[in-house]
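batch_manifest entry 22 of 60
target: ATPase_AAA_core domain-containing protein
source organism: Anopheles gambiae
requested by: lab member K.T.
priority: normal
notes from requester: please return tokens only, no post-processing; we will run our own comparison against the previous entry in this batch. if the run fails, retry once and flag.
--- input ---
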Amino acid sequence: MAQAKAVAKFWITTTDLLDHVLKHEKRIQLAEPTKDGRIVHRLVSDLFCRYVQLCRSLERCYDQTLQVQKRAVIQQLLEAGQARMLELRTKLQEIELSEFVYVDGALQEQHLIPDDVLAVRPCYFPARRPDELQALLDAQKLPPFIEPGSDAEDGSSSDESEQPEEEQVPVGKGINRPVVKRDRRKERLQAALNLITAHERARQARVRQTNFRLHPDRYYPKPIDEEIVDVPYEFFYRPGQFMLYPVKRTVYNWDFRMKKKDVVHFAYYAPPGWEEQTVRVASVRWPDAKELALKQQAEDDAAAELAQVEAAKRLEEALERIRLNRAAAKIQRYWRKFNALKAQKKHRFDRSKFLGLFDDYEPKLGDALAVAEVRAARRARQPEFDRSFVAAIADEKARILRIRGPALLEDITDFVRAWFREWYDETLAFDLIPEPFQGGTVLIVRGETLTPLEYLALERQKQLDKLKTPEQKKKEADAMKAAKEREQEKKREEKARLKELAREKRARERKEGKTYDFTEPEFMTNAYLTLEETLARYRKDWAFVNELDNLQDLPIMEWITLDKFAEVHQELHAEVHELLKSERELLQMALCKDERMKYKPPKPKKPPRAKGAKGKKRKEPIDPTADLSVESILNELVERNVLKTCRKRTFEDYIGDFNYAAFERRNRLEQDPPPGMGEVRTILQSYLYGMGPLAAPKPKSLCLVGPPGYGKTLLLEAICNETGSTLFDLSVDTCGPIEPNNMAHFLQLVLRAARLLQPSVLAIEGVHRGFYKKVPQPEQPLDPAKLGKHLFKLIVKQLKPEDKVLLVGTSDQPWVAKVGPLKKCFDKILLLPRPDYGSTVLLWQYALRRFPTVPRDLDLSALAKVTTGYSAGQILECAQQVLNIRRRMQFGRKPLQVGELLDHFLAGTTPQYPIADKEYEKFVKWHRKVDKLAKQRAKVMRERQLLAEQMAAKAAGAKK
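--- output ---
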């Protein structure tokens, strides 16, 4: 209940925000036309930030609204808002001549942070496909897109593949150890089983020991006569064996049985059979004086010797105490030193944490997870409300048909029959009933058909036309033809005039700069008009509905009744049409018989066909896969290894920061800064809005270009995982076994399967191989060019805006491909940027924080400064290989040092270096050739540089 009220109040706040944004846009439309791009950029970026926040609020309302009719309104607003937001982003890209735009000025004015205007994952991702298709897809055993441990992982890492398989290690000359493939899952299970068994045996031993101690009479066995020989248990040590877990050892061979009692030496009674013997009394002899003297001397010697022994013993004890004191003092000294170092380290750690030099990696996500669970539970109830709404519609339609259907059918029939009578009374004829595609009997009820008077006027005109001479007919035809030609000539002149005006405008813009008019259609788009109309219609329809009273989110039955009444009315008109059409034929036959005329049955009219853009009839393409079932298509693609699964990747796994200085460098210093890795993540997410169930513009194809290890494959898998798409692998290796003659049929099969299983992603790793300028000798048997010949015609051109299918290609050597065909196949071509300092810091943090024992105060700043430019794949691989199990076990006595990570790059047999500037410049030059905005921006930057040099030369000449 409380949650429903909160959602209703948030919706009211969102409508106020929408009204505020629309009013702000109206104020912008009142601005004067200007040529200053900075002013336009400021206004459009301000509006773009507002629409981003509006779309986030609308998305949350759409996600949490259960009332079906209200959710339909929010869906229309969300679709229009997202379309408008993407239009404004496109306008900013045209102004800045770059795919990456920066709106820092608007953020400062609105007191926002960059995270407030980032593209986020929509709530309706991943998209759902029909249950039968999903079950059919789940039943297939699909191979992985990237084999574990392969080099094509492109910088991505996996926790399961943290320890690589053992490779052949050279032992001596020409001798290699065999490759041992370890089953790590089996080893983990065996270790867990051993641990559980040890604990269980120890527990049972403790229970037995306790029972013997507390209840000896019950658990002790009876004494036995024979001697019991214990078998001792010895612990033996094997080299290389160590304890995986510190477990307290329990003696398993403890003998709990009572020992045999020694009854002979018992002190309290005489055992049976014991015979006492009498003690003989010996005679006593008194010693003499000499014996007494010797005895006294012996006693004195013994006392002296005892005193000497005692003195030596006391001396030894004193020396032992001195040694113990020294040892204790030494232990205390080292212990105090250890405590002081530990306190100093903790103080330095707390100070660095307070200053924000590093994160403690202990996020408190309890509240966020609780909120997410509540929202997910409410979202999961939406299908239930949809089913209830559909059931209510069906019940209401059945009720209307049962109660009002017969009366409506009779009323429509009576009205049409009265129309027949009126025509017969006034014209002695019966007009044709319009066909259903023209409107049917609905036009008769509305009075939109031909009236009897108009019919009589047409008949008189036909009679007059029959009386005209051929010369008059020819003259009228010539006049009509001349009028038609004059009209066409006016259209041609108007078209030429508009074309000339457009040409003059383009020339004037090239010479003086473009003039931005905020009242033109490029700013007043259909998305903006849709937002206005939908909001106005909502406020009109829901003006008398108190949403806070409908906390159960029940449907409004009055609207359902009106809609279903109109639908039933249309259906009954269709039934009446067939009945009255037969009656009209009978009446016409009777009329012809009375008038003694020949009856001519009317010719059936056919609905007009859809025409193309130029007025020609559209020719439907022939689908050679139309006779194949879905099961057969899937089986064939699985056999060809086209359908594959990908790892669970998200855009958050693409670690990278933003270029926070790009706005000042571009707008104030007039430079062309490279984008950050975080901006690539944002723009890719904005491209994917159209892959969900809501209508939104999206590109048909996308190409990711960058050196190896820059995350191309990771982004491809993130696109598939975020949108819930089916992955089709169309790489050259997959298409290699296909004959060139069957390539067209194969691509048509893939396209049909992609549309059936949409959302779908058609992935092409190494797309440059399909457009080779010169095919390398090793790849000639695969014939890679057969894919590039048909890719645009059979895949890209056939995709429609409403298809949830995206073609994604990756390339690390784009310059070896033909520029024209490759550029034609991809709408968007993105060059992945090199990691800067901020992105490198985040990469090292991500690579090291996966190991809990790594110190959090490691000097990552200096490490990132030295390793700036290394790819994400190199950094992740370095952390994975350096921080192996053996090294992590040594953290207690040998802390991790930054030099160990650097030594991995530099001290190996083959040192690793970041990609050279000259090699990366090849990617930049190629990207400027194929990307229209990048080409224009490079031209503008050259002009600015030339102008700056000219100004500097003039200033130098003036000083002289």
